[in-house]
Amino acid sequence: MRIAIVNDLGLAVEALRRVVRSIPGAEIAWVARDGEQAIAQCERDRPDLVLMDLVMPVVDGVQATREIMRRSPCPVLVVTASVRGNVGKVYDALGCGALDAVATPRLGLAGDLAGAEDLIRKIATVHALAAQSETRGSASSAADAPAAAAPHTLPPLIAIGASTGGPHALATILAALPADLPAAVAVVQHIDRVFAPGLARWLGRRTALPVSPLVAAEPLRAARIVVAAGDGHLVLADDLQLKLSDTPRDTLHRPSIDIFLASVAQRVPGRAVGVLLTGMGRDGAAGLLAMRQAGHPTIAQDETSSIVYGMPKAAADLGAATEVLPLQRIAPRLVELVRKS
Question: Which of the 8 DSSP states describes residue 137?
């Protein structure tokens, strides 16, 4: 795995070099000192992964990510010294196509390296996604149980999954939903648990609907949006509340879109809509298929409007989507569907 480093600080570059060298099979492709150099380097020599700082001279990490995804797309992981101090830039970079964000490991006075574990784990996830087979996946075992009938007093549920490029796609859809939406909305975005609460606040500034991170059990409420947060999988439980589940623990993504959509397929026979947006890999495709097989309308984002046409393509290839739509048409279609239910 060839990994590029983009950072203007010498100590940060050295810390990242040490992390890369500690990973079996990984090597440093090149080092760029600002975003402009990174854009040019990616065009000349595309790596398997870019470790992208946010705050740099000439061109910052957000603009560099945007241009790399436009000119020479490859996986980008935001690695920055101040993740909390750059929250807005983090979500902007994720919206441009960065996979995730993590704090830069720190070199101590004695030459020791602190905070490398999170970065190593995320690099392993990117490697697993790149190597993920194209074989048809299976939905969560939750979908194998008999479906429970949803009381008609409950609102319909719009279940949305997103990954690479997801924040921008989510903001576009949620901004177009009316304040009197007669449905609950639940979102699973692949993002580090540290950033999930902030993502809810960031999205909340872009929609007329209230948005909150889900950290405890919550009933379905019309005209409200919840975003999966915490270290667990979002599921629709037997009591028809949205909850976080510790199991299964051996999934590539946590939270997993497949597990969420499969739980909806199991427990809501006809009052839900599944949506799978831009993202790398296949998570959500099998869950969307389970929803379609349970009788729900399902939507996948189209290739042209996707930052990365991985997850929606996997869903389309499985026949999981009843409709494949450009991003701008998804919100109007959702409103139409839930007003009918």
Answer: P
